[in-house]
Design a protein that fits this description.
Helix content: 25-40%
Strand order of the largest sheet: 1-8-7-6-5-4-11-10-9
Strand content: 25-35%
Distance between the termini: 42 Å
Number of domains: 2
Number of helices: 5
Largest sheet: 9 strands, mixed, barrel
Amino acid sequence: MTSKYIKSVVAFLFIGSWSVSVLAEDQTDLMGKWQVVGASINTESQRTLNYQYNDDRLVGRELTITPQSILSNLPGSNHCQSPSFQQQELTLDSWVKKAVGEAESADAKSYNLGSPGNDSVTVFNINCQNGTFSGEGDADNVLIALSRHKIRLNWSDGTILILIPADTNTLPQPSFSCAKANNDTENAICNDAELAAYDVSVDRAFNFWRKQAVAAGNSVVQHRILKTQRAWLHERNSCGEDKTCLRTQMQQRLESLAHAMDEQ
């Protein structure tokens, strides 16, 4: 592609019940590895959204920002190469409107962002010399909101992600006990933080949608979720120690579980 992609970054800090604006001195505050810990959606939207609140396809994924590139393993992500940064200021409500689009008529309150919409926030416009890290086609409309301990990023279909610095000092923590790992696949997951995070997401999604089927009294869907999970575990284990295979298998399972209730 020949066009350049403009994204923006907003800085703010929450202290107790008070909201205090924080002006980041430079883009070094953005650098490092971040992990998605939450996903907010527009609670006032009148349309069917692709992602749900704290969607397991999104929570647990990572974003790495360096002076050379911006990378992530979020669904639909790409590779932003040689980013440059320029500063401006907006209110939080203005950031939301720019991030998700005027058509949504959304603001900080509708996303439950926990801060007054008139807060002054610092914005860094990010220009990628090549590529984009957008989750959808409108790559010119990606904004990151930054505080000293948290960033927010608008992703696909108007979703706003909440990220914190990734913990690189602890061992990977999958959904099962690594002390009881009994095959090559489980050992591989226990030795890779990204795969462990995917494993947690799959386990959480499986249990969530199974409970949804039970709550709906739909034994057909409940049986299908259990049956496909057993089949998927067998297929996942056939990957052995192949991390690429395991990553793909878990990404596909998350997408499948997200649509578990579509055909009832």
